[in-house]
Amino acid sequence: MAYQHNETIFALSTGLERAAIAVMRVSGAGSAVLLQQLCGTLPAPRRAVLRRVWRDSAVKDNLLDEAVVLWFPGPESYTGEDGFELHLHAGPAIISAVAEALVQSGARPAEPGEFTRRAFTNGRMDLVEAEGIADLIAAETESQRKLALAQSDGALSKLYQNWRERLKYILAYQEALIDFPDENLPQETEQKLTDEISNLIAEMQSHLQDGEKGERIRRGVVFAIAGPPNAGKSSLLNWLAERDAAIVSSVEGTTRDAIEVGGTLAGVRVTFIDTAGLRETEDIIEAEGVRRALFHVKHADCVLQMFPGATIPEEVFSDAILIGNKADLIPVPSEVHGHEVIPVSLKTGEGLKALRHVLERKVESLTARLPGSAPLLTRARHRAGVQEAQQSLAAALEQQWPELRGEEIRLAMRALGRITGLVGVEDVLDAIFGQFCIGK
Known about the structure:
The protein is an alpha/beta fold. The chain is built from 14 helices and 13 strands.
């Protein structure tokens, strides 16, 4: 989408559901003229006032509504441009009439994410902070809200900007070594540069070794429920979902495809996947279900490996939580192959409270940020940028020629700059801001 930043745009920033108030948002160079046309004189900046909204206030023609009006002159506004908000009564006829008046006065409906894109273009926020805004709008859990709020407030941006400033300092001294080789610069200068590069590499490596906790918080922790037929996998899914999400039957092979159910544990979004019973089979459809089950086991954050009573599994999946079902009928071993077993009965409810505590602790361990550690990475794009910067700095340390070392440092700076949007990001802007809702 080719955006024209000299145009005045508008959008309904609240939902279309039945409500008391609807917020119409306007931004652009023509906002002052538009607001005067609708409401008369401009109110004091950033102060809510009650005004009548007319199709043409000059002649008091066609009253549209009585609304709370806020005027936000640029550059001290969300977008950095002049803008205003109309807090209207939320009747569909009122919203439609005001939108029609705005169009007739020269404004146009905003594209998804266009307000935030203008804020980015006008320097009100960088690209990482803009992505944090998108995550904040989409947040469904407390952990997502906290992570997105920290990112939109600049936690990640400050880290990357700090690294970039330090690289700028390193590059300045590196250029001095190149341009003034005969000026008898202190011998320890080059050693200090290489030491600082090594420090940055170590910091980036620590940042990358976060166990993908931030990305897990954004997308949710995935649990795959696996085990032989009739182990109670579908019953466990129904208990976790608190509804009948899967068919429960004593007939083996009832579950053929994966069934996903979402929920929240320890303030984190989670997805539970019920899979087909794992066994050798000649049935083509069931065999495909087994293949898909193994796929989900491989890609899940954690496997809930179930078995019925004393039927001990031959192998335990990596980092699995072992659950022995039917504890009301058959004694369940306390451990299998050196792994602790949680005994439960999905029929009587025995052990389910303890199982929930174990799952909550597992979620916390997969997502908790260590005190004093760097902000968590939240996107693959950020991870790739930091990895590229780290690789360039490692290459810089291997260069014998100072000119080549300086070029590798520049490449590292560019990689960090692309994360925050300082350089070379035009090809990703449409993809990022296209994910926003209209009105933001």
